[in-house]
Design a protein that fits this description.
Layout (H helix, E strand, L loop, with lengths): L9 H17 L3 H9 L6 H9 L6 H4 L6 H8 L3 H6 L3 H45 L6 H8 L1
Helix pairs in contact: 2-7, 7-8
GO cellular component, one term: mediator complex
InterPro entries: Med31_sf, Mediator_Med31
Protein name: Mediator of RNA polymerase II transcription subunit 31
């Protein structure tokens, strides 16, 4: 993409950033990895070197742009020849895909539960704060109501 013999222009750098961002996020899809492997890309030394080059996306100033951080995990796995050989198998890709979906479901459920608990604790905490701020220890109805929820 660079000019012949010269540095990249700002537009070329922006375009390269966008292309690499899109490509690296595609690595979060095990079926895409299977596609690449079946077409021989993962055996190509130049492509493997490109995957090694893309490791800079793990740095915080780049990782913050990723919508699918799972791609970094697969980028790490793609550094190993054994994984590159195994992902050719469609059953392997299907298994990884299934595990990924289960992880997301579990994570989503657990995250929702934690957020609900935090919100509940926040509500209860507000009630306790108002009781403590009352000064005379008298119970105002909000504390009982929020703690009983």
């Amino acid at each position: 993409m660079a000019n012949k013999g010269g540095p990249e222009t700002e537009d070329q750098q922006r375009l390269r950033f966008q292309i690499e961002l899109e490509f690296i996020q595609c690595l979060a899809n095990p079926n895409y990895l299977n596609f690449l492997a079946q077409r021989g890309y993962l055996k190509d030394e130049a492509f493997v070197n490109y995957l090694k080059y893309l490791l800079y996306w793990k740095e915080p100033q780049y990782a913050k742009y990723l919508k699918y951080p799972m791609c970094l995990y697969f980028l790490d796995l793609l550094q190993y020849e054994h994984f590159r050989r195994e992902i050719v198998n469609s059953q392997c890709a299907k298994f990884i895909d299934d595990q990924q979906v289960l992880l997301w479901q579990h994570y989503t459920r657990k995250r929702t539960k934690l957020l609900n608990e935090a919100a509940q604790n926040n509500i209860s905490g507000v009630g306790r704060d108002s009781l403590q701020n009352n000064g005379n220890g008298a119970n105002n109805g909000t504390t009982i109501k929020s703690e009983s929820q």
